């Protein structure tokens, strides 16, 4: 994140002796991406971050694709998928994936006994239901329904869900997650035409310092393999940090939609970019205000793109038969557009209350075998008149 932030106690200069009450040194720890050229932060901890008593295989999450990958429109009623177990990490149900991005659904029911770190991927959690606190090496960050919770790779953290139902869409990204390039100036600041600004972003705000010693497990994901890394102290022992690398939250409800006299294309809804995909937010807004405008989108061929929509409520102007939690995949190779009647119905309508997250990938997606259990097999017929 191109915003400088700091919490806790810091020495006046980098890389100088910073002493604890007993005269011993705090341990300085640089964490950042792109090999010293990307965003980074400096942390100071009570104990050595390098102390590892053991590393043992914990579990693997093979990305198994469905056997039949023939070309067709897809609709997964993802919230109907059985999700046994309530771990925010272990009990994710894989839905779609390619080499750039993987989408999973999870329903955490409580805090895990272990901490978690993804070594190879940034994670964005879209909080469809619920709220709680993200505990991390960078402090505590409250999250709530509608948040995108962005957790850059390598950060040790744990979700502490609050009461009530929790449903999270997990977006795991090979490349680092950032705001769209066209909305930033050369200094990284968000520009006036951006649909959100730094004031909308929420950063860690409190830094509890844990001083416990003993066995603490950090589940560390490296691709499909999760390892149990056993440390001899509580991993959240940061006394201070500063920099640009940390977890942050941004609410979909803080997107200020860009509207026009005529239909605006999907890129106006873009919220994040990764490598090989983008994330967009469709939010309640006024429709196009030309007197003869057609608010529903025109048919289009999404050449070189697979389009995924995750419906965060049960309204969407161009689609019928969807529900909260529906996840549609319109693959490259088939034109798509409004279902019969939806274009005509949209004329003269002044506003929409739709809420959806779109993930457009530039490489084809695979449907996970486990997701077939919640598929609406008749979705492709919904464009046929009178179907
Ligand atoms: Fe589309």
Structure summarized in a few sentences:
1% of the residues lie in helices and 36% in strands. With 387 residues, the chain is an all-beta fold.
Architecture blueprint of SSEs:
Blueprint: E1 5-8, E2 27-32, E3 40-45, E4 54-60, E5 74-77, E6 93-97, E7 101-106, E8 115-118, E9 122-129, E10 132-136, E11 139-143, E12 147-151, E13 157-161, E14 167-173, E15 213-222, E16 225-233, E17 238-243, E18 248-251, E19 270-273, E20 277-282, E21 285-286, E22 306-311, E23 326-330, H1 342-346, E24 351-352, E25 356-361, E26 366-367
Parallel strand pairs: 8-15
Antiparallel strand pairs: 1-17, 2-3, 3-17, 4-16, 5-23, 6-7, 6-26, 7-14, 9-12, 9-14, 10-11, 10-13, 12-18, 15-16, 19-20, 20-25, 21-24, 22-23, 22-25
Keywords, separated by commas or semicolons:
387 residues; mainly beta
Explained architecture:
The chain has 387 residues and is an all-beta fold. The chain is built from one helix and 26 strands. The chain has one helix at residues 342-346, and strands spanning 5-8, 27-32, 40-45, 54-60, 74-77, 93-97, 101-106, 115-118, 122-129, 132-136, 139-143, 147-151, 157-161, 167-173, 213-222, 225-233, 238-243, 248-251, 270-273, 277-282, 285-286, 306-311, 326-330, 351-352, 356-361, 366-367. The strands form six sheets. The protein has a seven-stranded antiparallel sheet, with no helix packed on it. It has a six-stranded antiparallel sheet with strand order 5-23-22-25-20-19, with no helix packed on it. It is globular. The termini are far apart. The mean pLDDT is 96. The protein binds fe (ii) ion (FE2).
């Amino acid at each position: 994140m191109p915003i400088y932030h700091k919490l806790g106690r810091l020495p006046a200069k980098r890389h100088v002796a910073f002493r604890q009450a007993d005269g011993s040194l705090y341990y300085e720890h640089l964490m950042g991406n792109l090999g010293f050229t990307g965003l980074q932060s400096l942390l100071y901890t009570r104990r050595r971050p390098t102390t590892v008593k053991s590393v043992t295989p914990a579990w693997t999450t093979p990305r198994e694709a469905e056997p039949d990958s023939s070309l067709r429109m897809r609709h997964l009623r993802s919230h109907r998928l059985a999700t046994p177990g309530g771990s925010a990490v272990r009990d994710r149900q894989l839905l779609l994936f390619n080499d750039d991005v993987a989408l999973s659904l999870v329903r955490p029911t409580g805090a895990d006994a272990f901490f978690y770190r993804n070594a190879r991927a940034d994670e964005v959690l879209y909080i469809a239901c619920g709220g709680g606190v993200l505990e991390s090496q960078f402090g505590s960050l409250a999250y709530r329904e509608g948040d995108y919770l962005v957790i850059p790779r390598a950060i040790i953290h744990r979700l502490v869900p609050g009461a009530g139902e929790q449903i999270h869409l997990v977006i795991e990204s090979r490349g680092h997650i950032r705001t769209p390039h066209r909305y930033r100036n050369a200094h990284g600041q968000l520009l006036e035409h951006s649909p959100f600004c730094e004031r909308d972003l929420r950063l860690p705000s409190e830094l509890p310092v844990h001083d416990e010693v003993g066995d603490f497990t950090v589940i560390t994901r490296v691709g499909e393999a999760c390892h149990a890394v056993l440390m001899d102290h509580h991993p959240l022992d940061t006394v201070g940090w500063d920099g640009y690398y940390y977890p942050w939250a941004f609410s979909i409800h803080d997107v200020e939609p860009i509207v026009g006299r005529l239909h605006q294309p999907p890129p106006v809804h873009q919220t994040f970019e990764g490598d090989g995909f983008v994330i967009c937010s469709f939010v309640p807004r006024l429709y196009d205000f030309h007197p003869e405008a057609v608010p529903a989108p025109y048919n289009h061929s999404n050449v070189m793109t697979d389009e995924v929509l995750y419906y965060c409520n049960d309204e969407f102007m161009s689609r019928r038969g969807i529900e909260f939690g529906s996840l549609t995949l319109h693959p490259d190779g088939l034109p798509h557009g409004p279902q019969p009647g939806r274009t005509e119905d949209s004329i003269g309508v002044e506003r929409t209350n739709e809420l959806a997250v779109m993930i457009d990938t530039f490489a084809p997606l695979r449907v996970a075998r486990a997701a077939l259990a919640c598929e609406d097999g008749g979705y492709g017929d919904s464009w046929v008149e009178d179907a």
